Amino acid sequence: MLKTILRHGCRLRSVVNMRFSAPLCNNIHTLTPSNVQANGQIWPHVFVSRRTRMIDQFVKDAGQMRTSPPLTPRDIESRVLRICNEYDKIQEANKNKITLVTHFMNDLGLDSLDHVEIIVALENEFGFEIPDADYDKLYTVQNVVDYLIKKMNVTDRSKTTVSSAPDPRYDDHHH
Amino acid sequence: MNQFSLKHFIVRSQALALYRDVMRTVMKIEDQDYRKEIREWARSEFHRNRSLRDLGEIRTQVALGRRSLNELKLAMQMAS
Q: What is the DSSP letter of A21?
C-alpha cells in the first residue's frame, strides 16, 4: 500500500497544480521547507519528492524552450515582412505584395509618423532599441533587413545549438 | 525655394522624436485594449496638428505632448 501511495501520491491535485508554476517546477528536485508547503498546503516530503512523468515532461519541454533558435537572414526577412503585414495602416491591396524592394513611403503611401510606428514595432519584435539617427536609413525593407543583420551579427551559416538529443538531466530512466 | 527653414526641420525632428517616445511607451502597455485606445488617441492628436506651420504653435503642441507622455508614464508606473 505504501508503494501505491508512493507511486500515485503525486498525481493528487495539489501537486498537479504545481506544474503550472514554473519556479516551483524548477525547484521540484530540491527539497526545502518552502517546497513542501506548496499551494498553501503541507505535503509530506515523500509525496513532493516523487517525480511524475507529467512534471518531468513539462520541465523537459521548458528546458528545450529556454534557448531560442539562432537567427538566419531568412528568419529576419520573414519576421520583418510579418511585422509590415501586420501594420494596420497598410491597404489590403498592398498587404501581400510587400517585398524587399518596397519603399515605405513611395510604395505603401505611408507618412513619417507611420514609418516611426513600423520601426518601433520592429524594435519591439527584435528586442533592442534602434537609435533615432538610424531611422533615416530605414526607408525600404531591404535597408531594414540589412541593418538588422548587421546589428545582430547574424551569419549565413546557422549553427544549431538546440539538438534533438534529450536533456540528460531529465532522462526518464533516472526514476 | 523651399518654404521650410532649418528651424522647421529641427522642430519637425522634435515632433517625430516625441511620437517615437510615445509609441515606445505605448508598446509597454500590457492591456491590449488600452494599448489600442492610447495609440489611436496619440495618432489622432498628431494628425490633427499636422498642418501647423507656425513655429511657436508647433513648439507649444510638442511641449503639451511631452507633458501628456510624462503623465502616461506615471500612470503606467502606478498601475504596475
A: -
CA A98 from centroid of its chain's CA atoms: 26
* pTM of this structure: 0.64
Q: How many CA atoms lie within 13 A of B43 on its CB side?
A: 16
Contact criterion met (CB < 8 Å) for A116 and B47: no
User: For chain A, which residues make up each domain, given as ranges?
Assistant: 75-152
A171 classed as catalytic = no
Residues A47-99 have pLDDT tens digits of 555 556 667 777 777 666 555 667 788 888 999 999 988 888 877 777 778 88
CB B51 within 8 A of CB A151: no
Which runs of E-coded beta strand occur in chain A?
A: none
- Give the nearest chain A residue to B46 (CA atoms): A113
Is A117 within 8 Å of B16 when comparing Cβ atoms? Answer: no
The fold for domain A75-152 equals: 1.10.1200
Contacting A with CB below 8 Å, chain B residues are 16-17, 19-20, 23-24, 27, 43, 46-47
Measured between alpha carbons, how far is B44 from A139 in angstroms, rounded to an integer? 23
Domain ranges of chain B: 23-79
SS3 readout for chain B: CCCCCHHHHHHHHHHHHHHHHHHHHHHCCCCHHHHHHHHHHHHHHHHHCCCCCCHHHHHHHHHHHHHHHHHHHHHHHHHC
